[in-house]
Automatic annotation (TrEMBL):
Organism: Erythrobacter litoralis
Entry's transmembrane regions: 6-22, 29-49, 61-81
One Pfam family cited in the UniProt record for this chain: Transgly_assoc
UniProt-listed InterPro entries: Transgly_assoc
CC annotations in GO: plasma membrane
Tagged with keyword Transmembrane: yes
Family recorded in the similarity comment: Belongs to the UPF0410 family.
Key words, A-Z: Cell membrane, Membrane, Transmembrane, Transmembrane helix
Subcellular locations according to the entry: Cell membrane
Protein's recorded name: Transglycosylase associated protein
Length: 87
């Protein structure tokens, strides 16, 4: 059951990050899930380095915020690579 919740939360976080970065029209549900999960690892890894965040813990609001920030960073890096600028 935890894996399904992880997939759903990854999709929601990826979708929210794609809205913020104005890439929603270019991404489907699959890429939203991928971005959300990868962003979770990036964001929570960065915050764990500073003493907070835990990967996959949906009961921790800080972990969800860290996952969202990681997904935005990931999409920003993708924008830099594809277009040479961040939107």
């Amino acid at each position: 059951m935890g894996f399904i919740v992880f997939i759903i939360m990854g999709g929601v976080i990826g979708w929210l990050a794609s809205l913020v970065m104005k890439r929603d029209a270019q991404m489907g549900i699959f890429w939203n899930i991928v971005v959300g999960i990868a962003g979770s690892f990036i964001g929570n890894g960065m915050f764990a380095f500073f003493g907070g965040g835990s990967i996959g813990d949906i009961s921790d609001i800080g972990a969800l915020v860290a996952a969202f920030i990681g997904a935005v960073i990931l999409l920003g890096a993708a924008n830099l690579i594809q277009r040479g600028r961040v939107r």
